[in-house]
From TrEMBL:
Lineage, broadest ranks: Archaea, Methanobacteriati, Methanobacteriota, Stenosarchaea group, Halobacteria
Domain Mandelate racemase/muconate lactonizing enzyme C-terminal, residue spans: 135-243
Entry keywords, A to Z: Magnesium, Metal-binding
Name by which UniProt lists this protein: Mandelate racemase/muconate lactonizing enzyme family protein
InterPro entries assigned: Enolase-like_C_sf, Enolase-like_N, Enolase_C-like, Mandelate_racemase_C, Mandelate_racemase_N_dom, RHMD-like
């Protein structure tokens, strides 16, 4: 089997009213823009993947094809070497590897997680918020999650004064004493389109961690410091009992070796789309387990990204699945608009798709409606 072509489609889906993602300072996201890729082969099997992009988008299909044309999708080690070269040159390449796994799974008639030695299992979801909200609005959100059977919620901390965010967390804890909480500071990185990014000092990060210890029931504090400052993360980790999480967008395997060498993290979160691909994510999961650490990949991108990370979760020992949810703008319909059927939890649990490859079907009517005219 040989790779013969790569097709790229830019899609724009209008969100219901928009929301203010904490990773893009002073920006309201009203449109989900996606780059959808199809990798074609000479045996008629097409693999799919998708990644996030800017409103203007990036044309990368010709560049990827120049590196991969004529290669056998099964030659993943050799292909990952080429993807590392592309990563060095600039374009984020890991979503292309996901399409190759989709091809392989379709070729053998098995879901990706089975090819990785995983099993079909129900994984508890945590509702992952996307913005900072006032206390009353966030309490209503959490109540809706609990009513759906969800047992954990991740709050975003990004206020100018961390005490404002801590007040929301205390109110949620008081109202829902048995709910597992996660906190994402989004201090590891940001997309600087409008405003300036907010970064905590070491003292602020330790202060927040200490306050979370008092609040209790907090599974982890995510990205409290810049993602590549391994020593600072290690120092924070030594001085708190709250687990420190990160690594969602650290590209390639080398940063995760650095995290391990420096004892920087308790929980490793590489996203298969943005950080490692599926095989690299599996490697990080194995590295984490060997060092007594946990693995819980980031999933916030789109329906195909969630599907890819669900296969990775099913093939690892991850205890949680991130479930992006910030209605009305960001719900299952918005996230999975290009899929025939959304990937939804049932009473707080979700399983990987069971069809061949990624196991999902594209809704081509929705895709045609969302295509950007000047692609």
């Amino acid at each position: 089997m040989k790779i013969t072509d790569i097709n790229q489609h830019r899609l724009a889906y209008e969100l219901d009213g928009g929301y203010d993602p904490t990773w893009i300072p002073e920006f309201t996201q009203s449109t989900l823009v996606v780059e959808l890729f199809e990798v074609e082969t000479d045996e008629g099997i097409t693999g799919i993947s998708a990644t996030a992009t800017t409103p203007g988008g990036y044309e990368t299909d010709d560049g990827f094809l120049e590196f991969l044309e004529g290669m056998d999708p099964y030659e993943l080690d050799a292909i990952r070497t080429k993807l590392n070269s592309l990563n060095f040159l600039g374009p984020d390449p890991w979503h292309i590897e996901i399409a190759l796994w989709d091809i392989i799974g379709k070729d053998v008639g098995k879901p990706i997680y089975k090819l990785l030695g995983g099993r079909d299992r129900q994984v508890p979801v945590y509702a992952s918020t996307g913005e900072v909200q006032p206390t009353e609005e966030r309490l209503e959100y959490v109540q809706n999650c609990v009513d759906e059977g969800i047992q954990a919620v991740k709050l975003r901390f990004q206020s100018e004064d961390p005490d404002d965010d801590l007040a929301v967390a205390r109110a949620v804890r008081e109202e829902f004493p048995d709910l597992t909480l996660m906190v994402d500071a989004n201090m590891g990185w940001s997309i600087r389109m409008r405003g300036d990014e907010r970064r905590w000092s070491q003292t602020e990060a330790l202060y927040v961690a200490t306050e979370l210890e008092e609040i209790g029931g907090v599974a982890w504090l995510e990205e409290p410091l810049p993602q590549d400052q391994y020593d600072r993360l290690a120092e924070l980790r030594r001085n708190t009992s709250i687990a420190i999480a990160g690594g969602e967008s650290n590209s390639g395997l080398t940063p995760f070796r650095e995290y391990l060498d420096h004892d920087s993290l308790d929980i490793y979160q590489p996203d298969a789309v943005f950080a490692t691909g599926i095989r690299g994510g599996k490697t990080v999961a194995e590295m984490a387990r060997l060092h007594g650490r946990e693995f819980a990949p980031h999933t916030w991108s789109n329906g195909l990204g969630l599907a890819a990370n669900l296969h990775l979760i099913a093939a690892s020992d991850s205890r949680w699945c991130e479930y992006p949810l910030e209605p009305p703008a960001w719900d299952e319909q918005a996230r999975d608009f290009m899929l025939e059927s959304p990937l939804t939890h049932e009473d707080g649990y979700i399983s990987p798709p069971n069809g061949p490859g990624l196991g999902v079907e594209l809704d081509w009517d929705a895709i045609e409606a969302a295509k950007v005219d000047d692609e």
